[in-house]
Amino acid sequence: MKCEKHLEREAIGVCANCGKAICAECRVNIEGKNYCKDCVCELFEEEKKADLKLVMKKFDITLFIGPALAIIASFLPWVTVQILGITKDINAFYS
Ligand SMILES: [Zn+2]
Ligand SMILES: [Zn+2]
After folding, report:
1. Cα of 33 to ligand 1 centre, how many Å?
2. Ordered mean pLDDT values, 10 residues apiece, the chain (95 residues)
3. CA of 22 to the centre of ligand 1 (A)
4. Is 5 helix (H, G, I), strand (E, B) or coil?
5. CA distance 53 to 51
6. What pLDDT was estimated at residue 80?
7. Taking the domains of the chain in order of start, what are their residue ranges?
8. Of the options 3.30.70, 1.10.8, 2.30.29, 2.10.110, the CATH number for the domain spanning 1-59
9. Cα 72 to ligand 1 centre (Å)
């Protein structure tokens, strides 16, 4: 049996995912199983996408909107007082 990519090379096994014959160079060993490089790339891409989804889930924006609004709301009276205070000062300065 020859490697699918390197026809001159003898395959040392088959990919556990797609079943293609793979040589020592094409073989990627993951958790004791042989995979071809194409499958590893594919699996890795899928894993990355899954990770991204998981991250998006973890940082669910709705979880932040509530507390953020509460913080803003709690600061609003203070901000208003500051702004009013400053304008009062300015008015006092010019009068
Ligand atoms: Zn494969
Ligand atoms: Zn090969």
Report:
1. 11
2. 95 96 95 93 86 79 82 86 79 74
3. 8
4. coil
5. 5
6. 84
7. 1-59, 61-95
8. 2.10.110
9. 53
Ligand nearest to C-alpha 38: 1
Ligand nearest to the CA of residue 23, numbered in listed order? 2
Residue 12 C-alpha to ligand 2 middle, in angstroms? Answer: 9
- Quick one: pLDDT at residue 95? 67
pLDDT for the residue numbered 16: 95
Q: How far does the centroid of ligand 2 lie from the alpha carbon of residue 1, in Å?
A: 11
CA distances from 14 to 10, 43, 66, 87 (A): 11, 16, 53, 78
Burial class (CB in 10 A: 0-12, 13-18, 19+), 17: middle
